[in-house]
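Hi V.,

Quick status before I head out on leave. The structure for the redesign project is tokenized and pasted below; the design run finished overnight.
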């Protein structure tokens, strides 16, 4: 079972919701921080790191001794990651999408691929009072790297593989919460792909409404069921609520402004610790969504 938490814009409380769902769900759970350009779920977790690994992607390297300067590779690359200027062929690794096509079209075998680091993947364990420990996976894109989707895929793939006899991974009953990057571009699409349900977190402001509309249209196109949480619901205006009603979008929860939550956030405390009454609310929400997912599988 996989629930992705996404938002059309940053700063709506997406990570707060992800962490709250993961910490309060009464069954086995794991949390994937796929907001790899700015992962911050770990700030709110008392975790014990288990391991860290480098994530690499293949990038082309040209053997100048073999290159005939034919330009076939540059013509093929639709991302302009290879250019030919006269007899010189140059590669711009930061634009490369690692498709491997240039090596395939090179007529003289002058292109080989070498691994290039794009970031790290950290695995941790988080103890939860009276509940199964939470498995936590975090991707962190290296500074200057632009290609986050391969790192997001690495986080998702690693979390899906059972290892070290840990029965949580690969268990169909484990609830996986994916904290998605904000927005509606490739990183968000990569993070939410394969989700059984998406929670869109928004706020009742004109920007919040505009970006919620984009996000709702995106997940509708992906064919994934979704609902909305309106954070800071008593600020702004009621246009987000009216939009949801008009579009037939379910509002899953409303979270009013609360000084305890704001102060706890600034201290790195999860919402469910700052305002304990939300522990039950998020547990029920996770349980209800999980039940709907299970029901949909039948
Ligand atoms: S691997 Fe693909 S994206 Fe990268 S340089 Fe070659 S053709 Fe372009
Ligand atoms: S396709 Fe091969 S031979 Fe042609 S320019 Fe590229 S690297 Fe050189």
């Amino acid at each position: 079972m996989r629930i992705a938490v996404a938002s059309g814009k940053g700063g709506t409380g997406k990570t707060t919701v992800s962490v709250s769902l993961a910490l309060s769900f009464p069954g086995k759970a794991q949390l994937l921080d796929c907001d790899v350009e700015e992962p911050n779920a770990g700030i709110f977790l008392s975790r014990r790191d288990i391991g860290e690994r480098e994530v690499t992607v293949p990038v082309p390297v040209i053997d100048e001794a073999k290159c005939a300067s034919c330009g076939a590779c540059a013509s093929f690359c639709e991302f302009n990651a290879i250019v030919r200027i006269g007899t010189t062929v140059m590669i711009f690794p930061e634009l490369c999408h690692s498709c491997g096509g240039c090596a395939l079209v090179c007529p003289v075998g002058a292109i080989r691929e070498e691994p290039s680091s794009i970031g790290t993947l950290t695995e941790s364990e988080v103890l939860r009072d009276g509940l199964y420990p939470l498995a936590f996976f975090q991707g962190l894109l290296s500074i200057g790297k632009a290609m986050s989707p391969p790192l997001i895929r690495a986080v998702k793939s690693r979390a899906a593989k059972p290892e070290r006899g840990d029965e949580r991974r690969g268990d169909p009953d484990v609830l996986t919460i994916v904290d998605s990057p904000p927005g509606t571009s490739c990183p968000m699409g990569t993070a939410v792909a394969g989700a059984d349900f998406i929670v869109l977190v928004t706020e009742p402001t004109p920007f919040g409404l505009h970006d919620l509309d984009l996000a709702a249209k995106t997940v509708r196109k992906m064919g994934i069921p979704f609902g909305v949480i309106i954070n800071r619901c008593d600020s702004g205006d009621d246009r987000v609520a009216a939009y949801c009603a008009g579009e037939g979008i379910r509002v899953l929860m409303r979270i009013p402004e609360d000084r305890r939550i704001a102060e706890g956030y600034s201290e790195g405390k999860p919402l469910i610790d700052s305002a304990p009454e939300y522990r039950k609310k998020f547990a029920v929400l996770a349980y209800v969504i999980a039940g709907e997912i299970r029901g949909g599988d039948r």
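Above is the designed sequence. The two ends are 13 Å apart (CA to CA).

G. will cover questions while I'm gone.

Best,
W.
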